Amino acid sequence: MRAPPKRPVRAPPKKAAKRPARATRAKKEAMVADQSRIYDLLYGTAEGIKKKKKEVKKDPGFVRYCKYTAKMFGKSAKKTITPKYEQALAFLGWKLTPQELNSSSDFTMYVGFGIAAMWMVLNYVLGNVVRMGVWVNLAANETLGQALMGIGFQRDVFYLLGPSFGTDPVTILWYLGPMILALYAWYYVQSYPLKQVEKETIRALTFIPQITNYIVMAMKVTPNLERAIKFAAEHGEGRIAQDLKDLQYDIHTGKYRTVEEALDNLAWRWGKQSEEFKHALMMIRSSVMEGDEVRRNALLDKAVADVLEGIQEKMDYYSRSMHSPSIYLYYFGVMLPLLLIIIIPVGSMMGGSGGISLLGGFIPMFLIYNILIPLFSLIMARGILEKRPPTRAVPKIPDDMPGLPKPGWFKVGKYQIPVLAISAVLFIGLAVGGLLIDPILNPVPPEWKQISHVPLLSYAGFVIGAVTAFSFWLWAANKDRRKMQQDIIAMENEFQDTLYVIASRLGEGRPMEDALKHAADFIPDSPATKMIFKPTLQNIVMMGMTLKGALFDEAYGSLRWLPSPFIKGTMRIVVDSLGLGVQTAARSLVSLSLQLRDSQKVEKALKAMLEDITNMLSTMCIFIAPIVLGITVALQQIIGGALKSMTKTMGKGLAGGDSGGMVSGMAFEMPSIGAEASAPVASQEQLLLIITLYMIEIVVVLIYFAASVNEGKNELGFKMALAQALPISITIFFAVVFVAMKMTSIGL
Predict the structure, then answer these.
(1) Residue 293: how many CA atoms within 13 Å on its side-chain side?
(2) Could you give the CA distance from residue 226 to residue 217 in angstroms, rounded to a whole number?
(3) Which residues are CB-neighbours of 65 under 8 A, at least 6 positions away?
(4) pLDDT tens-place string over residues 43-93
């Protein structure tokens, strides 16, 4: 019997090798990262939302102040606010309750009125009780009066204690001044949200056309609202760009169901401040529903044109609204003080003990002319400048910019010289020169031998030397930076033409490298060619860098040292648009060039409208004011000399007779007990010091105002204008004083 055949033994199937769990996890993470990058490329929110959650915005100072005062006055404050304030808080994004907002004004009012009441009581006690007691003690003690006179004691020190309470306007203003300031502080706090809305509205005049153009540029490339909003938010500036970023966040966190709903909400929120921007957003939204490309582009072009027209009208309005306040600044900051500088000393010399005569002492005049009037003029100037429509931001030149001398030095040819050394030489030379020529040109008259005499030219040499040294330091330390800034501004102004040349070559289908090379050959002397195009081409050809790296690389990029946010932002748009195709980039550059041309038209129109005001103020502070003030000083000398002669004549007539109520025999003249002291008068030397300081302060304020009107917030422009104006005005002032005194045959 045969055995059954054996079945072949099959080898067990090989088990598949297990993939490492770590590799699978890494692959999943890579896939998620790729999806995140794609999502971020399309919508710009994958990482943005995470960053947004981490960001904690700090409340503005006013909001913190309201929350602080609400802890004390929140329960008693009103629980309602007007719709105007509700709209302002919603527009600004301030999370404040009605009680918190109202408590801030209540707290300011109570504290201000309390301080004003304490001021009134303190002045009344000091002015009517303490001061009279001091007079009595000095009148009874002749030795003490002589001792005080010997150490240079001035009677107007007593007037720091406050005038006696009376019914004349000056005394009433002295007592009620803090009450007026308290009312102003209350009004300022109460109206602060509305003023901030107005400021944001004026600031938006620059950014609304920019944002609208960016949205339209993106919509012409791809009619997708979400992508257009992302593009405008990334490249735009100002509050509207921030609102667009917040809009993206709100869309992807579910606050709005669609981008159209979010855009409508933004349009209505800005509608109260800019009707043209609201209509532009509505037309952009409508263009998505337009199927025909020609009609869609026409609708987008109309949105841009309407915005530019509306912004132009508003800029005209705000520019004209600055004219009248500027005239008021001229009258209150220059003309009225020039009149008062004549009236106050004369009134103090001739008019008793009350009213305007109280202001003729050194301390009151110093407070008025060297503190109050310059401070009031500066506050008024800043208030006017807040209504100035903003223009393109000027480039800020850093101290370590290549091509600049080291800080504190300036270039003279190939050499660098320390600024402070030259300033010190100027100061010492002018001061010593004044001392040397004063005895020759301004000798002391014989009749002035027995009384105080301040050599005018010695004083003038010291002041002119100090002002000239400071002005030279200001000029030399900033002249190279200013020249570089002006070169960059000139490059920005012609950049629109450069973009058009590049766009023309891109429109022919050429690559960006060829377009840059053609632009460099076509306009070889252009600053943009020397500073941007040629270095960029070298980075691409010799170092093999991409266009983005050739422009923005931190170590070798052609724009790494260029302090122009405008040009950097424009070239970033160029790089981003090239990612969508050469033809798309060409259309974007043409639109961008037209936008730059329109913004330059607005800037030129603004400067032309305000040119008359700035020229008038500059001429006034440099030439007219020094001449008038110089004549005023000479006039005071004439009046003071005449009054001294009258006093001597009257004193001889009264010799041996009635002393007129004065305590006889005292070197320190005091009224007899019970008599009111006559108001002190600033001496001629003190008056010259006060007017000199006022001259310098008012020149600084008016030059700051004129420079800010012309160039906006440009620190270098203000410094250079001040360095040129200050030495001229102070030299004219002292020259007029000297000539006027020589013509009237008086000395100081």
Answers:
(1) 5
(2) 13
(3) 104
(4) 444 444 444 443 446 778 888 899 888 888 777 788 888 888 888 888 888
